[in-house]
Design goal:
The protein has 318 residues and is mainly α. The chain is 62% helix and 0% strand. The mean pLDDT is 78.
Amino acid sequence: MATYPPPPAPTPPAPASLGDYAIAGAGFVVGVAGLGISFYPYIPTTRIEAFYRPTKAARNPALGADESRVSWSAIKKYFFTDVGVPLVRVAVLRIVSERLYAFADLGLAALLSPVLPYGRLNVAVGPTSLLLTYAPGAFAISAVATFALDALFLPFKVALTRAALLKSSRPSKDLLSHTERSQPLTIYKRLLPALLGTSVFTTSSSLLTSFLISLTDPESALALPARLLAVASNLFSSVVMTRLIAQYTVEGEQIDSVVPVRPQPYKGWLDCVKSIVREEGYWFAGWVLVNSALGLGMLEVLTRGQQAGEGLPAPADV
């Protein structure tokens, strides 16, 4: 019987060199930097939306800011002033809240899957006119469940918005006021009706725009105004919620913000809209329209790029 030599002993792995550690360290730094860059736009966007600057007719030197919204000093506050610590706070809150929200969303969708189309919870968002026509019960359940989920995570939304505004010299506990920390239900008492108003507004605008789009070819130029309206309505509701959340919810308590915020809390969703128009004019209209056009254009570019990558014809060629 033939005999064979034993297999050679495995070669031990070479010890990591200084270059390996350098590459790993550089990769870690690049990853952290990329994560920070992805969260950074939230800070200037929130500061621009929260910036309170009443018109001359409504200005009270003892209460309001006298700084121009587009001055160089204001632009520095939006983009460069006191960014490091707020960026860390935003990143931590975004990562934690998004993971928890995704887990809760998955669990609720699984629980309601027998009555939800395609097992999706957020069917109240997007082109929903056909769904409302043929599955009104599922649409209603989806809208209510999504609102309940948003309400559950409302404190995270409050802390995240204020994380972009609170000065780094202040402790993180000041993301909530003393009253909000000692009486957490104060947040819901003041902001839950506003959240409901936002939900009703965005769902209604989604229904309206999807109905308008269904009347024509979704890819035609005639559908463009309706799609722009859909994006603009969501951005408008974002401005209102930012204004409502930026303030502490109890009168007499004021957040130490990088940018000036309105001293007195708004009384509700509609009061916020009316107060912005009365005290500051229609500045938000330009902000919403410009961002809507940019967002819609970017979405169009991404859609065409994806279709080109998959070998599909562009919408204009169909």
